């Protein structure tokens, strides 16, 4: 006959059972209230053993449905989001290496969405399980896609703006060259004219020399030759022909230098970033615009010892030309233009163009670099020269400043790095 259990023992058992039920209820409440989806897997087979409320909502399935399907049904199914890929990550997590990765998931309605998965081995109820925490990141991925599209759009817009700026720069350069063309043509015409004239004289001299040579060959004595030499002024021809050849050689050298300066100014042979001597660029530009300056300006150069600069030489030459032409146009009768250069520390160089012209009114100083702003008469300027110069200097990661006093003149100073950081800049070459 079985002895009845003491009343105290029965009460303790009931209290223990009640405590267990309350603990399980609290665990279930916490388990289901977590914002992330939670999957508990068998560590050996990968089968789903339990899910929380958020997991069921996320995948639009009941707990029984989730337990009945495999990982393949909850994934996109296209590499790298297949059953085999999932097995690989689960195997690494089961080996003791916690895993965190993004996954393209599929819910019970067939909707694809992005999740972030954190997977690790855990001891639950004295048994090793595989715990997977799933966070829905679809909104974040949409925002990332929008951000990437916006970034691509900005890159395209920047590229178009740069192309437009380059076209504008080229148009301004052609307009500037057009304004200077008459002066350049005049500079070329002078040596060409006297070389052409010298060629006519040389032709006549050569014919005379041939007559004297032929007479000396046919004459019995030297009297006829001497008479012919005096008649043709042989001594003068002998002296003048050397002078004509020297003048012609100098004229051709002037033509060659002007053409070389034009080429150096435009850098048609190389429009890429390169190491360049700024002094050569300034000198070439000065020769191109010389016809604009020489009748009313005295130009002095105060060059310091500068290293070569990594730059776009033809664009900097455009800046030099704009500053020199503006300086000349600011001088109404006679004046001076001073070009200074210098080095600022180990990383920067500077170029100044100062004039003794009429200066800039204080109210206009802050507007001189605005596009289309000009104080010149209609037809004398587009208002783009200084604006484009500002853009070129900024592209070189430099800066340009102006100081001016009405009636005394202006000084423009541009400062650029010796070697700009093109890797981390929009100024990098395309």
The radius of gyration is: 44 Å
Q: What's the N-to-C terminus distance?
A: 99 Å
Low-confidence stretches: 426-430
Question: The CATH topology of the domain at 270-430, please?
Answer: Heat Shock Protein 90
| Proper CATH architecture of the domain at 270-430 | 2-Layer Sandwich
What's the order of the H and E elements? Answer: HEEHHHEEEHHHEHHEEHEEHHEE
Count of strand segments: 12
Computed structural class: alpha+beta
What would you call the quaternary organization?
single chain
The largest β sheet comes out as: 5 strands, antiparallel
DSSP helical segment count:
12
Helix fraction, binned, reads 40-55%
Strand content: 15-25%
- Shape verdict: elongated
CATH superfamily (homologous) name of the domain at 270-430: Histidine kinase-like ATPase, C-terminal domain
Q: Strand arrangement, largest sheet?
A: 2-1-5-4-3
Give the mean pLDDT: 82
CATH class category label of the domain at 270-430: Alpha Beta
